[in-house]
Write a structure and sequence with these properties.
The chain is built from 11 helices and 15 strands. By secondary structure, the chain is an alpha/beta fold. The longest helix has 22 residues. It binds 6-O-phosphono-beta-D-fructofuranose.
Length: about 350
């Protein structure tokens, strides 16, 4: 130590609220060691470019970024560098280009902020390229293993909860069943957390198989008690009754989850006679001002990542466990997918509140 280090930082995968707070924390903490922080542009793509695309980040560069959504570095959730689709259609392994880009920048360590997929890719590149690497978990899906929380999740839950708060009044005024479809990929954390916090009557998540008749029974029970409106929240990866995911083809041949809200609303309408409407929250869950909890988490993770580098601790991910930030082997984190445990406290809470989980 003692020598002025150069730390690289990148954000990879889908954006979420709190990324800039983490970048800011890394820059500010590195400053206490008099180290430089280089912000790499557009995830690993910045390291593939020649010259590699990176900017020296000063404290002033991150001055007003604490609350800012998105990522000042840019990101991508496409293009596995080990099977990278070239403009001419060829598929190439570009991992060595990334490793070379890292070394061209003369960096001493790399901090990668990503979800499970990005962290697995970065870990592999770091291992192959002998790059001292520290991971910071982020994702609104909250599905990264070993950490109780990832950056972005709390803000997404707040947004989904606020949507439910709003839907209650309009649903009650019109005697409608409102179905809110939320993101989360294969994990139902957003739906479960927001569903409880936002007073949903039905919560449907991929981890708990549902039967349509159970959902309709809950809605009909409310109708019989004179409650002619109901609120349903459903995770995007919930399947149809035949066990199929509903997906939508996006641009560039990308296939994305989406549509289960409409499917359920149609079925509920047919079965109960209720008028139904669907709200798909989509990317609003990833944008906007980050919640105080996400700012705290991101700030703690950023500081912990720099402190780990100062201790010479690498190949680890910072995590939140039992009100404490610690580091764990990144290998452990990426091999453990964190879906909702059907015996989770919040599942018990939902059942105790009489919320229908569809089973
Ligand atoms: O992983 C985060 C996430 O927002 C998922 O919840 C969602 O399924 C996916 O990314 C959407 O990806 P895109 O931004 O490519 O549409």
């Amino acid at each position: 130590m003692g020598q002025r280090k150069r730390i690289g930082i990148l954000t990879s995968g889908g954006d979420c609220a709190g990324l800039n707070a983490a970048i800011r924390a890394v820059v500010r903490c590195a400053r206490t060691y008099d180290w430089e922080v280089w912000g790499i542009s557009q995830a690993t793509q910045g390291l593939m470019e020649r010259p590699p695309k990176a900017l020296l980040l000063s404290i002033d560069d991150v001055d007003r970024t604490l609350t800012m959504g998105g990522t000042i570095l840019g990101t991508t959730n496409k293009g596995d560098p080990f099977a990278f689709k070239m403009p001419d259609g060829r598929v190439c392994d570009r991992s060595q280009d990334i490793i070379n880009g890292y070394h061209q920048l003369g960096l001493d360590a790399l901090i990668g902020i990503g979800g499970d997929g990005s962290l697995a890719i970065l870990h592999r590149i770091a291992t192959e390229g002998n790059i001292p690497f520290i991971g910071i978990p982020k994702t609104i899906d909250n599905d990264v293993g070993i950490t109780e929380r990832s950056i972005g999740f709390d803000t997404a839950v707040n947004i989904a909860t606020e949507a439910l708060d709003r839907l209650h009044f309009t649903a009650a005024s019109h005697n409608r069943v409102m179905v809110l479809e939320v993101m989360g990929r294969d994990a139902g954390h957003i739906a479960l957390n927001a569903g409880i916090a936002g007073g949903a009557h039905v919560i449907v998540i991929p981890e708990i198989p549902y039967r349509l008749q159970n959902i309709c029974k809950t809605i009909q029970g409310r109708q019989q008690r004179g409650q002619h409106y109901s609120i349903v929240i459903v995770s995007e990866a919930v399947c149809t009754e035949n066990g199929e995911h509903i997906t939508k083809m996006q641009q560039f041949g990308e296939c994305r989850l989406g549509g289960i809200g409409q499917y359920l609303a149609d079925k509920i309408g047919d079965c109960t006679g209720a008028e139904t409407r669907v709200t798909v929250l989509g990317h609003t869950q990833r944008g906007g001002i980050s919640s105080p909890l996400d700012r705290l988490l991101a700030s703690s993770f950023g500081v912990a990542a720099v402190e780990a580098i100062a201790r010479g601790e690498f190949d680890r991910m910072v995590t939140w466990q039992h009100r404490e930030v610690i580091t764990v082997p990144i290998e452990e984190a990426i091999k453990t997918y964190c879906a909702v445990d059907p015996n989770d406290t919040l599942v018990t809470t939902a059942r105790g509140l009489g919320i229908c989980l569809g089973d």
